Amino acid sequence: MCLGIPGELIGPAGEHDDLAVVEVSGVRRRINVGLLAEQELKPGDWVLVHVGFALSKISESEAQAVLDYLEGLGQPYADEIDALRASDIS
User: Fold this and answer.
1) Which InterPro entries is this protein grouped with (predicted)?
2) Spatial distance between the Cα atoms of 1 and 17, rounded to a whole number of angstroms
């Protein structure tokens, strides 16, 4: 099963236009936003993130609904966030 997780866009990640920083449940990571190059993205926007790529821009209410559902999974979601926190994708 593949899982896309909502992340809030924090801002650009440096010299490459395709990279941005998102925050997922308190963890900040660089992601590639190149697939959304034709969309206007700004800090505070929400994107659906899968394996380091922003797949689509989503509304804040949709992001919150998905996060609420994922958090409701309990330990499996906590384990995923712990793994994300432990990774260093800089």
Assistant:
1) Hydrogenase_HupF/HypC
2) 30
Q: Which class does domain 5-86 fall in?
A: mainly beta
* Structure confidence by residue, pLDDT tens digits, 2-28: 678 899 999 998 888 899 999 988 899
For the chain, domain boundaries: 5-86
DSSP of 24-77, one letter per residue? ETTEEEEEE-GGGTTS---TT-EEEEETTEEEEEE-HHHHHHHHHHHHHT-HHH
Mean pLDDT of 73-78: 86
| Chain centroid, CA 3 distance in Å | 11
Q: Is the pLDDT of residue 1 over 80?
A: no
DSSP 87: -
CB atoms within 10 A of CB 60: 12
